[in-house]
Amino acid sequence: MPRQREPTFVLFWGPQRDYDHVDVEGILETVVGYTGSKDEQAHSPTYQNVQDFAEAMRVTFDPSKISYEELLTMMFSFATPADPRFAGTQYRFAIFYHTQEQKALAEKAVEARGRLGSWVAVEPASDFYRAEEYHQKYIDKQTMSMFI
């Protein structure tokens, strides 16, 4: 079994489809969910009750085939950060790091984006709650239903 890693990015439906369909080896799984709550009492978020969580995507990848830096580059190509004054907690743009190495690489990637990077938070990873099943691969499901 290859060594696996799981970065967490604040992305949801659209970028999940993009990561799932990009033609590169090493992305093993994507899961959308909720993370990043600052409230220690908050738990079990849902789409109808997000609380102060952010919509997020966890990417499981094989670092022998694709690097964390490549995943960061893809993230910025799949989604454009929004001014946090208008994005709110649920839609804020953030990278949640799991290791100090991920933190350093995320900060470097954010800094390289200038003003857009200033709208990206780099925060320690916290509990990740898988989103409801109807949110998993949502755009693929919606696209398929158009042809049924």
UniProtKB/TrEMBL annotation:
Regions annotated as coiled coil: none
EC annotation from Swiss-Prot or TrEMBL: 1.8.4.11
Domain Peptide methionine sulphoxide reductase MsrA: 12-143
Enzyme's top EC category: oxidoreductase
GO MF assignments: peptide-methionine (S)-S-oxide reductase activity
One Pfam family in the UniProt entry: PMSR
UniProt keywords, alphabetically: Oxidoreductase
Homology family: Belongs to the MsrA Met sulfoxide reductase family.
Protein name, per record: peptide-methionine (S)-S-oxide reductase
Organism: Seminavis robusta
Lineage: Eukaryota, Sar, Stramenopiles, Ochrophyta, Bacillariophyta
